[in-house]
Design a protein that fits this description.
Strand order of the largest sheet: 1-2-5-6-7-8-9-10
Largest sheet: 8 strands, mixed
Number of helices: 6
Shape: globular
Structural class: alpha/beta
CATH architecture: Alpha-Beta Barrel
Strand content: 5-15%
Length: 255
C-alpha cells in the first residue's frame, strides 16, 4: 500500500484506475497524464492483484479509490473487492464517489459481503448544484461528505435546499479542502465559505448535545456529532480557525 499526501487517511490502494466523470480540476487524471498508468483515463481498468496488499497486518485507514470513482465500478469488480475487504477486517476502508446514485445499490453488495463496521462511503459536494447527491448516501455503511474542492459559498447547510442535517442518515464527517494546482480558472476559497459549513455543523452538534426534545430524540436514534476536518490547503486561509477533528476511521498511532 502506498503512503499518501492525503491527510485524512494512512494510505491508498487503487484496484481500479480511471474515471468517467471528466472533472476539470481532477488531480488523478493529471497524474495519469504524467505517469501514464493507463492509456485512456475515461475507460477505467481493474488491477485485482493490488488487493493482495490488504493482507498487511498493521491496521490502516485505506482510501480505496483515490484514482477512480467507485460509482463506476462494475459488479464483478465490486464482488472481488468486497471479498478482499472481508478477508482483511483489520483495516478501515474509505470510498468516495461523485455518483452515489450509481453506487448506492453496489454499496449494498459490498456491505453484505464484507461489513465489519469498517466501511465509510462519502460523496463529493463542490457547488450547490451537487446537493442532490446527499440523498443517495447509503444506509449500509458509515457516511461522510467531502467538500473538496470548495468552489463556491454553500451557505447555511441546515437551511439550504439540501438541509444536510435533516437527512434520514447524517454524515459523520465533513472534509473541507481548497482547489490545489495551477489551473487557470482555479477558484480561491474564501474564509466565510468554510465558516458557513463549520457553523452549520456546530449548530447541529449543539442541538444533539442539548436537553431539548429534539436533542433527546436525536441521541435515542444514535446520531453522532459531525466531525470537521479541514485539509492542509486551508491552513493559511483559516488561520486560528483551522480545525482537524479526530476522524472516526483513523487508528491511534503507536508511540
Amino acid at each position: 500500500m502506498k503512503k499518501t499526501k492525503i491527510d485524512w487517511c494512512d494510505c491508498t490502494i487503487n484496484p481500479v484506475v480511471g474515471c468517467k466523470n471528466g472533472c476539470e480540476y481532477c488531480y488523478a487524471e493529471k497524474l495519469n497524464k504524467r505517469f501514464n498508468f493507463i492509456d485512456e483515463w475515461s475507460k477505467p481498468q481493474f488491477f485485482p492483484e493490488r488487493l493482495q496488499q490488504l493482507c498487511a497486518k498493521s491496521p490502516k485507514s485505506i482510501f480505496i479509490d483515490s484514482m477512480s470513482d467507485c460509482g463506476h465500478w462494475t459488479i464483478p469488480q465490486i464482488r472481488k473487492i468486497a471479498e478482499a475487504i472481508n478477508d482483511n477486517p483489520q483495516h478501515n476502508y474509505i470510498l468516495l464517489t461523485k455518483r452515489p446514485d450509481l453506487f448506492i445499490e453496489k454499496c449494498k453488495l459490498i456491505v453484505e459481503d464484507a461489513n465489519h463496521g469498517n466501511i465509510w462511503v462519502g460523496t463529493t459536494i463542490t457547488r450547490r448544484e451537487d446537493f442532490n447527491r446527499l440523498l443517495f448516501l447509503p444506509i449500509y455503511a458509515h457516511r461522510f461528505v467531502s467538500v473538496e474542492p470548495l468552489l463556491e459559498d454553500l451557505g447555511d447547510l441546515s437551511k439550504e435546499k439540501c438541509d444536510l442535517f435533516n437527512l434520514p442518515y447524517i454524515p459523520e464527517v465533513i472534509i473541507i479542502g481548497a482547489e490545489t494546482g495551477n489551473r487557470k480558472s482555479k477558484i480561491v476559497v474564501q474564509k466565510e465559505w468554510v465558516k458557513n459549513i463549520v457553523d452549520s455543523a456546530n449548530a447541529f452538534n449543539e442541538m444533539l448535545n442539548s436537553n431539548s426534545y429534539e436533542g433527546i430524540i436525536m441521541r435515542k436514534n444514535n446520531w453522532k456529532p459531525v466531525m470537521i476536518f479541514m485539509k492542509e490547503s486551508l491552513k493559511d486561509t483559516m488561520g486560528n480557525d483551522f480545525r482537524q477533528d479526530k476522524l472516526p476511521w483513523n487508528f491511534e498511532k503507536e508511540r
